[in-house]
Each structure stands twice: as structure tokens, then as C-alpha cells.
Design goal:
The structure holds 2 protein chains of 2 kinds. Chain A is α/β, with parallel strands linked by helices. Chain A has 9 helices and 10 strands. In chain A, the strands form 2 sheets. A 6-stranded mixed sheet of chain A has the order 6-7-8-3-9-10. In chain B, helix 4 packs antiparallel against helix 6 and helix 6 packs across helix 8. Chain B is elongated. Chain B has one domain. Classes of the chains: A alpha/beta, B mainly alpha. At the A-B interface, helix 2 and helix 3 of A face helix 4 and helix 5 of B. Bound molecules: adenosine-5'-diphosphate and magnesium ion. Adenosine-5'-diphosphate binds next to helix 1 of chain A.
């Protein structure tokens, strides 16, 4: 279980999170939605210690990890993988070496064995035929698929997907959606998915939380979002340019 | 007046911030030396990039520099008839100063700048954060191999550079003023000492260390996208050059007196 409790975060004068509280139940899929720049990426980075809150606590399975040192976060990060919004593959390595790196480092396998395992992970996202090419050869969408494969190498219990389907073609997006669903259904993986993709939101999410002006505007099932009469929620879901939201 | 004071104050502040940052990085590296752990692949990649790819330019510059030293001094050598001093003069100045300084500066411009740009780009594109989320320590994985490669390779390149500069000087001494290679080498070997070579090589090791520290520091501290990377590369080259000259003045007398002390003690 993941708990964010009253998280505040500012960058210089800019207040980004102003008291965000959120709970993600084990094995479930929570979608975080909200306008660009509202602080979705900032929020999820608190879970793996890439950002520290100004105040508030973060709990992972009941353990308060807020004040963990960088070193203490390493075991947390093995259990809790993250796919960044901008894929963040290592430019200097082939796709295969990108995926093999965490295997090589943490499972203490020989290079050959690690690569074979990595190839299997690449196959999960349909990139096994491009394994020996470099990230620069590919567009955003394909890089993101490889980043997903890389994040899953350590068999994490928790995965954060920051906009996993943005920039993907509809078929790849469906594959990724199904993968997230499968991870939860088959392996009991808990996922936090940051997304704008309405189709994935309503087909994959167990719960949805909407971030608006530094706080959670609504936190509920997809059904609750469909039925919500909050004009802000309505406007976001319908994508209408007119409404109470400031753009 | 106030404006000047303000500017002086803020440059002192930013200087101490940089020095503090360098000290922190140095501390992080020292902590990771016990026990030492190097990623084999990344270390090989660093050695290849730093060393193998720098060798041609070092050889070329060294040859040309040695040659021009012979050309420049030829008029005086002829005027004073000091043919027997050319080997010593070239050897002494190349091994002690010209070799390490010239190759150090070139190394900082090529390898240091490249390192800052690479690490800086990794920083702004969140590749370094990605390493952290894969539970891989960026200092151990990225920085340590670069340190080792830069120190070792700058020492080796300086040895190679010394050699080629001497060869360049020898060839041109022969061509310009008919100082035969035998006379050149004789004077070099008779009149220069092991310490003249060692001073240069030891300094090169420290220069390599300084360039590694400075270039990694500026790379890891980049903020602000591509513009920030450009600024960091600039700062790295300037700071490395200052560091090289500073260390040169500091180390030369230190090494010489340490050597003298050893000599008195043992022999
Ligand atoms: N490291 C940082 N330093 C300063 N400002 C930041 C940093 N990270 C994010 N921000 C700011 O926080 C706000 C929220 O960013 P982000 O979480 O990326 O939005 P999104 O909801 O689109 O993911 C943005 O205004 C961004 O400029
Ligand atoms: Mg984002």
C-alpha cells in the first residue's frame, strides 16, 4: 500500500503541491490525471525519493520512507520501479544493454545471461528485433516501450508509469494498457499511472485521482468520475475548452 | 562603489559554492573507494573514449611542438655554438613543463569538455535520475570509471607526448642546424635526470585528477537544458585551466624537494 499524507512541495516561489493526500491499495491501479504542469510528475517522484516533500509523509507498506537517505532508498527503488515521462534511455547503450543493465547490476548474472533475459523483456513490448540499435534511432513512443521493459526487469511490486501511452500509436497504447492491467491481475503489481489518455483511463483504472491546483480534486472509481457533477472534473473529462478550469 | 562591492561579494560567494561542490564530490568519491568497485563495461568504455581517441591528436601536437621548439631555438644555438645543449634544453623543458601543461590543457579541452557535456546532458534529460531509480548509484557507476580513466590516460598520454615531442625536436634539429640525433640524444641522456621526467609525469596524474573532478562536478550540476550544458562546458574548461596552472606552481617545488629529501636520505 502506498500512502501520500498531506504532501506540500514548492520550487522557489512556485507552490506546486499544497496538501496532497492519496492512498493506493495493494494490487490496484490508480490513475492520476490533471492538466499539464499541475504537478503529477512531481507527486510521483516523491515515492522513489527523487524529490523530497517540504512537509507531509510518504508511506510504503506502512513504513515511513519520507526521511530515508539516498542509500536507504535503493532497496525501495528495486521494489518500486519508475517509467519516466521522457523515457530516459541511456544514449550511449543499445536498447538491449539498456534493459540488461539493471539485470547485470542487481541479479549478478553474467553478461550473456543478462542479455538473454533482457531480450525476453524487450519481446514483451515487441522491440526484440531492434535490440542492437541505439535509442537515438527511435521516436518517443518506441523509446517509451523500451523504458517500460527496462523498468520491469527487477520484477517490482510497484510501478509508476508517467504518461506511458503519450506519443504511442493506438495499437502500442493498447498493448501497454493491457500490460498494466496484466501486471495487476496476474502478478498483483500495484501501479500508479499518470495519464491524459481518456481511453486508457476508463478501460484500465481501478481508481482515479484528479490533481487540480495543488490538491486532489476528486478521488474515486471511473464510475464516480463519469457521474461527477463537479464542473472542473466534467470539463477535464470532456476536454472542453470552455469551463471553470484555468488553462 | 556599492555595485562593485556587490559584484565582488557575489563572485566570492559563487567561488566558495563551487569549491564546496568540488569538496562534496571528492568526499562522495573517497567514501566509495572502500571497498573500490568499478563497473567493468563502463570503465572500458571510458578508457577507450578517453585514451584511444585522444592519442592521434596528442601525438600530432607533440610532434609539432617539439619541432617548433627546435626551430625557435636554432638561431641561438648557432650563434652560441651550443649544439651540445639542444638535447638537454628540449628534454628539460618538454618533460618538466611543456609536455604535461600542453597535453593537460588539450586533454581538458577535449576529454574534460566532452565529459561535462555528456554528464550534463544525462542530467538534464533525467538519465541520471533514471539510474537512481534503477537502484544504481551514479557516482559508483558513472563517475568512478571516468576518474580512473582520466588519471591513468593523462599520465600515459603525457609519456607518449613527451616522447613524440622529443622526436619532433630531434628531427628538426637535424634538418635545421645539423645537430645529429646522436648528439641530441647524448646531450639529453647525459644532462637530464630521472626526476625531470618524474616531475612531469606525477604532475600529469594530478592534472588528470583535477580535470576529472572539475568536469564531473560541472556535468552533474547542470540545470536549464541545452543552454545549461553549454555554460557548464565553458566553466569546466576555464576551471580546469586554472586548476592546471595552480597545481603546476604548487606541485613542481613540492615534488623537487621531496625528491631531494629522498636523495639525501637514501643515496
Ligand atoms: N526540479 C524542478 N525545479 C523547479 N520546478 C520544477 C521542477 N520539477 C517540476 N517543476 C515545476 O513544477 C510544476 C509541475 O511540474 P510537473 O509535475 O512536471 O507537471 P505535470 O503535471 O505535467 O507532470 C511545473 O510548473 C514545473 O515547472
Ligand atoms: Mg509530467
Amino acid at each position: 500500500m502506498i500512502v501520500f499524507d498531506d504532501i506540500h512541495k514548492r520550487f522557489g516561489p512556485k507552490l506546486v503541491l499544497e496538501g496532497v493526500s492519496l492512498t493506493v491499495a495493494k494490487g490496484r491501479i490508480l490513475f492520476i490525471i490533471g492538466q499539464s504542469g499541475v504537478g503529477k510528475s512531481v507527486l510521483v517522484k516523491h515515492l522513489v525519493g527523487l524529490l523530497r516533500p517540504d512537509s507531509g509523509r510518504v508511506f510504503l507498506d506502512g513504513v515511513d520512507i519520507t526521511d530515508y537517505s539516498e542509500k536507504q532508498f535503493y532497496p525501495v527503488r528495486k521494489r518500486c520501479a519508475m517509467v519516466f515521462q521522457n523515457s530516459t534511455l541511456f544514449d550511449s547503450m543499445t536498447l538491449l544493454d539498456n534493459v540488461a543493465l539493471p539485470i547485470r547490476k542487481h541479479k549478478r548474472l553474467r553478461d550473456k545471461v543478462a542479455r538473454r533475459e533482457a531480450l525476453g523483456k524487450l519481446a514483451l513490448v515487441g522491440m526484440e528485433n531492434e535490440a542492437l540499435r541505439y535509442p537515438a534511432d527511435f521516436g518517443d513512443g518506441m523509446r517509451k516501450k523500451v523504458a517500460i521493459a527496462r523498468a520491469l526487469t527487477l520484477d517490482p511490486e510497484y510501478v509508476i508509469f508517467d504518461e506511458p501511452t503519450t506519443g504511442l500509436d493506438p495499437i502500442s497504447a493498447n498493448i501497454v494498457d493491457r500490460m498494466i492491467r496484466d501486471l495487476s491481475d496476474r502478478l498483483g503489481v500495484t501501479s500508479i499511472v499518470v495519464s491524459h489518455d481518456l481511453k486508457s483511463i476508463f478501460s484500465v483504472a481501478d481508481r482515479i485521482a484528479m490533481l487540480y491546483k495543488g490538491q486532489i480534486r476528486l478521488d474515486g472509481t471511473p464510475e464516480a468520475f463519469r457521474r461527477s457533477e463537479d464542473p472542473v472534473v466534467q470539463q477535464f473529462i470532456s476536454g472542453s475548452p470552455e469551463g471553470p478550469m484555468e488553462v | 562603489m556599492n555595485g562593485v562591492l556587490h559584484r565582488v561579494g557575489s563572485s566570492i560567494l559563487s567561488l566558495s559554492r563551487e569549491v564546496g561542490g568540488l569538496a562534496v564530490l571528492l568526499g562522495q568519491i573517497t567514501v566509495r573507494l572502500f571497498p573500490p568497485h568499478l563497473d567493468g563495461k563502463e570503465t572500458w568504455r571510458s578508457f577507450y573514449k578517453v585514451g584511444v581517441k585522444s592519442t592521434p591528436i596528442v601525438v600530432t601536437t607533440a610532434l609539432l611542438t617539439g619541432a617548433i621548439m627546435a626551430v625557435q631555438s636554432s638561431a641561438f644555438i648557432e650563434e652560441w655554438g651550443a649544439y651540445g645543449l639542444l638535447g638537454w634544453g628540449a628534454g628539460f623543458s618538454i618533460m618538466r613543463e611543456v609536455g604535461p601543461i600542453l597535453i593537460g590543457l588539450m586533454f581538458s579541452g577535449r576529454v574534460g569538455a566532452n565529459n561535462t557535456a555528456e554528464l550534463g546532458t544525462m542530467k538534464v534529460t533525467e538519465q541520471i535520475d533514471a539510474l537512481r531509480t534503477l537502484a544504481i548509484d551514479p557516482i559508483s557507476y558513472l563517475i568512478m570509471p571516468r576518474f580512473v580513466a582520466m588519471i591513468v590516460m593523462l599520465v600515459l598520454l603525457t609519456v607518449i607526448g613527451d616522447l613524440f615531442a622529443l622526436v619532433g625536436a630531434m628531427i628538426f634539429a637535424d634538418l635545421m642546424i645539423d645537430v645529429s640525433p646522436q648528439v641530441f640524444w647524448h646531450s639529453l641522456l647525459e644532462m637530464t635526470y630521472l626526476i625531470d621526467f618524474l616531475v612531469g609525469v606525477i604532475k600529469a596524474g594530478f592534472f588528470g585528477f583535477a580535470i576529472a573532478l572539475v568536469s564531473c562536478h560541472y556535468g552533474l550540476k547542470v540545470t536549464g537544458g541545452a543552454v545549461g550544458v553549454g555554460r557548464a562546458v565553458n566553466n569546466c574548461v576555464v576551471a580546469s585551466a586554472i586548476g592546471i596552472f595552480f597545481l603546476d606552481y604548487l606541485l613542481t617545488p613540492l615534488i623537487d624537494s621531496a625528491w631531494a629529501a629522498l636523495f639525501i636520505r637514501y643515496g
